[in-house]
Amino acid sequence: MENLIALLVAAPLLGAAVLLCGGRRLDRAGHRLGTLLAAASFVIGAVLFFDMLGRGAEERALHQHLFSWVPVESFRADIAFQLDQLSMTFVLLITGVGTLIHVYSIGYMEHDERRRRFFGYLNLFLAAMLLLVLADNYLLLYFGWEGVGLASYLLIGFWQHKPSAATAAKKAFLVNRVGDMGLSIAIMLMFTTFGTFAFGPVLAAAGETGEGMLTAIGLMLLLAACGKSAQVPLQSWLGDAMEGPTPVSALIHAATMVTAGVYLITRSGAIFNAAPDAQLAVVVVGAVTLLFGAIVGCAKDDIKKALAGSTMSQIGYMILAAGLGPIGYAFAIMHLVTHGFFKAGLFLGAGSVMHGMNDEVDMRKYGGLRKYMPVTFVTFGLGYLAIIGFPGLSGFWSKDKIIEAAFAKGGTEGWILGAVTLLGAGITAYYMTRVMIMTFFGEKRWQPAPDADAVPSAEPAAEDHAGRMPHPHESPKSMTVPMILLAFGSVFAGGLFSLNSAFVHWLEPVTAFEHGHPPIGAAAVTASTVVVLLIGVGIAYAQYGRKPVPVVAPRGSLLTRAARRDLLQDDFNHVVLVRGGEHLTRSLVYMDHTLVDGVVNGTAASVGGLSGRLRKLQNGFARSYAVSMFGGTAVLIAATLLMRGV
Amino acid sequence: MSESSTVFPLLTVTAALPAAGAILTAAVPAARRTAAKWLALLVSLGTLVLAAFVVVRFEPDGARYQLTESHAWIEDFGVRYELGVDGIGVALIALTALLIPFIVLAGWHDADPLETRSRRWRPTQGFFALILMVEAMVILSFAATDVFLFYILFEAMLIPMYFLIGGFGDRAHTGSDENAAAQRSYAAVKFLLYNLVGGLIMLAAVIGLYVVAGNFSLTEIAEARASGSLEMATDTERLLFLGFFFAFAVKAPLWPLHTWLPNAMGEATAPVAVLITAVVDKVGTFAMLRFCLQLFPEASKWATPVIIALALISIVYGALLAVGQRDIKRLVAYASISHFGFIVMGIFAMTSQGQSGATLYMVNHGISTAALMLVAGFLITRRGSRLIADYGGVQKVAPVLAGTFLVGGLATLSLPGLAPFVSEFLVLVGTFARYPVAGIIATTGIVLAALYTLVLYQRTMTGPVKEEVRAMPDLKARELVVVAPLIALLLVLGVYPKPLTEIVDPAVRHTMSDVQQKDPRPEVEAAK
């Protein structure tokens, strides 16, 4: 059975290779091949899942060793896989949601002349993401980690002829590389500390080294997680990443890739459990991002960017939960899965709306769409109820547990974290209600599509619509069916997972589990969550439901304006990093030309009187120097030989 | 009088074929320049076959030097024609033999005579003959185990390189022809002067070594040093080491002796630029591993902190300078300076991972730079400009060209899955094990590499299509034949580098024992 693991990765990898090297011949069948191979991977995953269920909780992990990758003395990196309950959870999420989004893309990308390449990139992403979660050592994980970064780069910049898309892609890759530095250093620390970087031995031996070392490794892993999962301070790329086609936003920048940081921390639980300082850093990052993303989400008028802020915030919940240790790991992953369903569904819904609205992304120009796009309205609505944590739906079960665990952290910390997660839940309810109302309710605020050059819309197909009024219509079946299936997940997954704590028991052998004991009782936590939720919904309704939404955004308060600009982080980056960097490289270029070159040449000239005229080469003196030096060398050698009496 | 230790002098033949081919190519009549090209290509392919034999015949776990040949040459001076390869030499001979056919093929039209020249002018023949001549000398220098023989080759290869840079410049230039000729001439002379000065200092050290040791045989001297029968005063050893190292640091090139490289690579044609950075410069880093560490182990350890610092500066400085370039080829040159910093750092970290990584790095950098630079050359030839700002939106009109350029760039930024990642990570981890701070500073190189590569790609390939590139054709068959195998090789060596590490590891084990160094033990194991 373990021999099937490699096939999970191989199927989409084959798809990527064929689609990207195949040429135009495959244009007509490419999307079907790509979808088929994604589905094949899902079927293999399902087979492995049922096989796993058939074994006892402790004997579920499978290992497959393919070959030795980089063997240099004691440095051993293998291409080897490990499929345990944690990896299995990700495999099903990645291939399941991945396949649905392949299907959706068939319709969404129908008119794009480079659709074959799009599916090739999607397949490449699946292969890299599966490699990431199936690797049995950190270096192979790193392979997958950068692989998804590449796929993300290619897909954000899919419409490369738009400068904004190309810039966003580059930015995402660069910010992620800063995180990758952390992962590199963590692996190096593991190697010098444990002599290996395979999960098994490292995690088993974690207790044998000092807390200082574990804290260092933990912080480096956290840096990596911040990059990939768009957590403060490396979050700035995610909003721009919305330049990519919407299915990409759904799959990579909502459901799967951006949650890789949560996987990394949960997988490295043994290290974090023994390094409380690193855990504290994780929790703080999670808490800060949770609020940061939520605040940004409140201010955005671009539907995808509002959802991106929300993604950031929800992953903040997961990171926070993972930082709580064994009382939080299982809930972090559970929220990750339920979020995978409802956020992917929300993005696909947003894509469907854009599809019907001339690719318009500004919610101020939507309104009243529920009558025109009923399926989109219902599925999006269910996703909305799930994400705000409406009792009984998926998000309720997973988020409530995280809030509980945050309180259970204990002491003042517990109260602060609990308050932050509660506040976050309220803001979530507010901004999602705002999205819902602005899009589907109220008056129609539709505008004719602007000239393609005037407004940088996310989808370049906008060029075709220039000047036309939108005629909203329901999207084709290939798009609505995935949305319906994801809506089912949004509604029922959380409840199913929570039946007899099924999900917790499933993960317990891998992540370990301890019951958290919140100081105020679970019922009280749930009750306050519901109250906060209602307050958030109420405020949003008062602001956007009771009075008409202005088509042009009001100036807004200082906070609103800052939040629209991603709380000014880009401005900071631009001034400090971009400008500063430009000055640095420019002066270095100048210095290299004048100083270094000059000093070296000058030294040579003064020491040997060799090249005083190097700067006036045209006159041929330097060349004659060179020739005479060569000649001199030859004569010298010959003379030495003659003296020896050859 | 001669004694031969192998039945068939495979190494000599492997070097002699391109040398003979060079002479034959040069002799092809002026009117038959296509024949000269095909001859050069066939000879380079034949050399590749011979190099494949070298790889197959070499037994990784056998003696340290294999396929040895030894003949008296200048007896009174103790100079012998002595050849032999260890795993490091085999890897680099294979790299050289592998790259030359692609260089020849990529430069197919680079030396076609211009209309204005007289009919008897034979630049094409000369161009390809010089390339083959360089190949012969480089292969022989990777095999030479006699210090004097190595020195002669090290210096002699400057002559064909000088003519390749000065005589066959990139035809894409800005400004007048005279101005371009002057710049080319400047670049060629600068290349020659820098390397000659390095060579002169090395010559003094070579003679000094002879005075101390009484012969030139690398194996004999190294053995005598190891067994203690050849004592060297500390100062003597350090001076001799510096003499050798200086020459190699000019060639490698290490900061601050690097400034000749951007000029040379910028002015030369793209295939010649590849020849410089991917092949010839490797002789410098190779010689550090073979001669500096073996002949002067104590002095090498003495100089290590300074050399690591210089290597670190090269890594960061080269990358920052690459970010600031406006010329595509100069950008690649500065990226190479950064990469040479990694190689030197790996060598002097004195760990198995560092040195194996450095050797792999030499091979992988050769392949990845060839891929990136040759595609850049195709691009530059189409548009007639080396300036990044003259491009934009190329992916829309020439997607295959843009795609291969991206893969070459991703290899340059060491993306996992492509060969350079393996070597770069080994160098980093090998350095980190002994010098954690240096290791951490060097990792900033991975961010900077992403910056200069992706900015280059963005500015040239994405965005709206510039008017001047609108009619640009995509890669032609000949160009695809050049690029596709290089990319395939990058992928294979990225996922399955084991054949290479198996050849290199034993050689590194020998070098590690030469310098009497052991890998640091992991903390947990050491505590037990």
From TrEMBL, chain A:
Superkingdom to which the source organism belongs: Bacteria
Domain NADH:quinone oxidoreductase/Mrp antiporter transmembrane: 135-420
Membrane topology summary: Multi-pass membrane protein
Transmembrane segments: 33-54, 89-106, 118-135, 181-204, 210-227, 248-266, 278-299, 372-394, 414-432, 484-507, 519-542, 625-643
Any Gene Ontology biological process: electron transport coupled proton transport
Pfam families: Proton_antipo_M, Proton_antipo_N
Record protein name field: NADH-quinone oxidoreductase subunit L
Organism: Streptomyces lavendofoliae
TrEMBL record, chain B:
Domain NADH:quinone oxidoreductase/Mrp antiporter transmembrane: 144-448
Membrane topology annotation: Multi-pass membrane protein
Pfam family, one: Proton_antipo_M
Compartments, as annotated in UniProt: Endomembrane system; Membrane
One Gene Ontology MF term: NADH dehydrogenase (ubiquinone) activity
Transmembrane intervals: 6-31, 38-58, 87-106, 127-144, 150-170, 191-213, 239-260, 302-324, 331-350, 362-380, 400-423, 435-457, 477-496
GO biological process terms on file: ATP synthesis coupled electron transport; electron transport coupled proton transport
Keywords annotated in UniProt: Membrane, Transmembrane, Transmembrane helix
Protein name stated in the entry: NADH-quinone oxidoreductase subunit M
Organism: Streptomyces lavendofoliae
